[in-house]
Amino acid sequence: MSPSLQDLLSLAADRAAGELSRGDPDSAAEIREQLSRLGRLGLAASDAEFDSSYDADRLAVQHIPMHHVAALHNALLSIVAQEGAGIGATDLAVLLTAFDRLTRPALGGAATNDFTRHLSDPGSINAIVEIAHDMRSPLTSILFLVETLRRGRSGPVTAVQERQLGLIYGAALGLNTLACDVIDAVKGGQRLVDGRPVPFSIAEVILGVCDTVRPISEEKGLPITHVLPTSDGRVGYPGALGRVLLNLMTNALKYTNEGSVTIGATEINETRLAFWVSDTGQGIPDHVMSILFDGFRPSASGVRFSNAGLGLAICQDFLRSMGTSLEVASKEESGTKFSFELELRRA
After folding, report:
1. DSSP H stretches of helix in the chain
2. Nearest alpha-carbon partner for 178 in 310, 46, 288, 294
3. What is the largest CA-CA distance in the chain?
4. Parallel, antiparallel or unpaired: strands 335-343 and 224-227
5. Are 314 and 250 in contact (CB under 8 A)?
6. CA pair distance 278, 257, nearest whole angstrom
7. Which of 69, 145, 285, 299 could form a disulfide with 304 if both were Cys (CB 3.0 to 4.6 A apart)?
């Protein structure tokens, strides 16, 4: 999370409380304290799963009127979209999701039992994949339409509107990637490496990944650089290679606030190439390295689903299916580099 996020939440709580208490000034202080409490819990919830120490506060914020929560949402979105404030689209989406979890009442017994029963059916895995497919289609359309608007193809776009569209694009790309990760986690790393390898252009794969994430890099003010091999045409599995590089680039941009992100490929010999994605971000803490490729990570309340972890686990599956593996070198506050080598004969 951005270091400025706490200050941003405080400002949003002030604005929302002022708006909500316009007809009753005496209620402003109480509403502000209510929203500030929600903001503090939202920060904690977005960084880790709840443990028992949050239970009482969590129950308390569930009684906050939904129009108060909506006012805090709107104030936060307005500040970020119009004034920047140094928060990225991914952080914003995670925080708003945490608010939703905090204020959502627990499901009643009947609804919970019915949902559990459906998940216990033999066809539940297929149902989850179908849901992910249904999510992915409209999200792909959103990404296309937002990028069309950002490029001014439907008319002039103001700086504020471009900022807002960048936030929408980043959030939609995150959801789209999550849907793809769910599908790949169920179907396994072999899905995109079935059949015969095909001729493809490494440059097209790398530049395509750069084009996909460029709206996020522009919204964060992070330049992307790329390195292309001197020998381009190869034979392999471009779909799997593109998924791995896109996932690594998305993570690099998510965890980098200053500096740059680089993607590249160079020849090691006639048939072997090295690929990498490096950033100047916050680095990976030592205690995370041992569980970095786990899609489901332990937490105080049991097992916590990790989007970034699931994506890296799937990357590892794809690469192992192609006869290689993902390596990582990282130093806290100095950045991270993910790399792998592939045998790809010339086309």
Report:
1. 5-20, 28-47, 55-61, 66-83, 89-103, 109-120, 124-150, 159-187, 202-220, 238-254, 286-289, 307-321
2. 310
3. 76
4. unpaired
5. no
6. 13
7. 299
Task: Give the integer Cα–Cα distance in Å for 91 and 22.
Answer: 30
- CA dihedral of residues 46, 52, 56, 60 (deg, nearest 10): 30
C-alpha distance from residue 78 to each of 106, 256, 257 (Å):
30, 23, 21
Shortest CA distance to 49 belongs to which of 2, 98, 104, 89? Answer: 98
With a CB cutoff of 8 Å and minimum separation 6, the contacts of 97 are 46
The CB density around residue 133, as the number of other CB atoms within 10 Å, is 13
Q: Which of 83-92, 98-107, 232-241 has the highest mean pLDDT?
A: 232-241
Q: Which of 184, 170, 165, 180 is nearest to 134 (CA)?
A: 180
Query: Does the structure show a pLDDT above 60 at 59?
Result: yes
Flag the least confident range among 150-154, 299-303, 308-312, 316-320: 299-303
* CA–CA separation, 91 and 139 (whole Å): 19
Q: Where are the domains of the chain?
A: 5-103, 109-187, 196-343
CA dist list (Å): 222 to 8, 180, 275: 21, 25, 21
- The Cα–Cα gap between 320 and 314 comes to 10
Neighbouring CB atoms inside 10 A of 134's CB total: 11
Q: How far apart are CA 240 and CA 235, in angstroms?
A: 13
The number of angstroms, rounded, from the C-alpha of 21 to the middle of its chain's C-alpha atoms is 35
Burial of 3 (0-12, 13-18, 19+ CB in 10 A): exposed
Residues 6+ apart with CB under 8 A from 272: 341, 342, 343, 344
Beta-carbon-side half-sphere exposure of residue 18 (alpha carbons within 13 Å): 8
Q: Of 113-122, 160-169, 178-187, 277-286, which gets the smallest average pLDDT?
A: 113-122
Nearest to 217 by CA among 281, 299, 297: 281
For domain 196-343, give its CATH number from 1.10.10.250, 3.30.565.10, 3.30.450.40, 3.40.50.170. Answer: 3.30.565.10
At 289, which amino acid appears? Answer: M
Residue 104 has phi, psi (to 5 degrees) of: -80, 120
